[in-house]
User: What shape does this take?
Amino acid sequence: MADHDQTPESETAQHDEKAAASGSRRRRSRSREAGKPAPPDPSKLKFFQLVPPNTRIDFVGNGKKGFLFGMTLIVLSLLMMVFNAVTTGSALNYGIDFKGGSSVRLSLSSEPDIERIRTVLDEAGYSGSSAVAVPDAQNEVLIKVKEVVSISEEELAVCRDALSQLAGAQLVEDGFNHPAESSKIFMKFTAQPAYADIERLMTDAGCEGTASAGVGKPDEFPVEYALEAVGAEIAKVLNREFGEGTVAKLGASETVGAKVGSQLKRDGVQAMVFAIGFIFLYVMLRFDLRFAPGGIVALTHDAIIVVGAFALTGKEFNLQTIAAVLTVIGYSINDTIVVFDRIRERVALHRDAPIRETTNIALNETLSRTVLTSGTTLLVVSAIWVLGTGTIKDFAFALFVGIGVGTYSSLFLATPVFLWINDKMFKGKGHLIDAEDDGKERGTGTLLGPQTESPEEGEIRGEDSVLGIETGEGPQASGDVEAAAEGEGESAADDVLPNLKVGDVDKQLGERKTRRRRRRPKDE
Assistant: This one.
């Protein structure tokens, strides 16, 4: 009841107290805000820019010099491969994958003398052999010889018969296969065999090697047996020349026949040709026929120079190198497409400007992106190249060279070829739409070339012949044109048309066509 007995004067006093407290809080809040620094104006913020926005490097003007330099690198790469073919008999240092032969990795009991090992192998009949110390591995040497595993059918039959003594498992029918010129035997058993028993029986029969789990159905109990014929013979030769126990352990061995190596070489070349061919079709259909030849010239340039770098350094050229070249091709076309897309965008927006000037501006606009992307990628690849070992080191080397020349070719090879194609095939006007010819023919800038204006488009253009003026606003422009059409003289129209921007006409024309389609009845 006490609450309901409050007088109007007490209620007014309480209201005044609340208002005073609220005002005090607002004053304290404003005082705290006044002490804070004002937030910066976003329009005045300055960010770090690797390439200033007003950079104007004359890529197009130096296009001929850049193109000639790229062609010079290609010629030097080809000459280097020819020189290697004359002096060493092979254009590249092909690995076992391509030329066939055997690769054996040996662990020695002491630090190897590489030159003496090569001499001993040559004297033992392994002509053309190579021996190198394994990086980041103590007292290990990698030996490559032309010889492959040679085992007769009679020897295979003896080894197969020896497996009949295996306890607890037997070979299934057709479960003993040895592919020609291969260092492996593939077996299938009725039960899971003991690998140690297989190795013991096969070694006693004259087929020295190691057994491991094979690939196949689990209920067939597949076994893969790697013959060590070549590796065991090389180990015997080294133990005989350097003393018993020189070879502490026989490591991994690999054998590839000459026929298989030749087939792999053909497949590698076909993979690169198909990749470049399909990229050509994609660029031609997705962008324009004028862009496709430049992209292919750039890709071919990059691939040849990467291969030439391997010819110059003598690094082993194998299947991993083919994978690296294909990776470079993919990276290079991505960089080239980004440049082409910006060129196409600026050409479409500035059709009345000289195409060389527009192209040069587009190249400078993408320069910051190109430098940042290629630079960060090169940092990662450089780290792998310096710190990596084995095949990954050579893979990183190919990427390092490919990314560098790929960035160069996107700027100095692909673009000059595009401009040359535009001049020769389109007479330099493949991108232009002149105001006086706009009512007759409209160029699309695509593979299909110029397209004739449709009746609907002509009707729209007849109703709104002038949709934008360089100096300004649509209503005033429309009024000027209407005044010229009502007979105020040719001078008014002459004042309007010189200021006409074809790009603005195209843009507003498309917007009006869209609005007209939306207003159409559904039954039409």
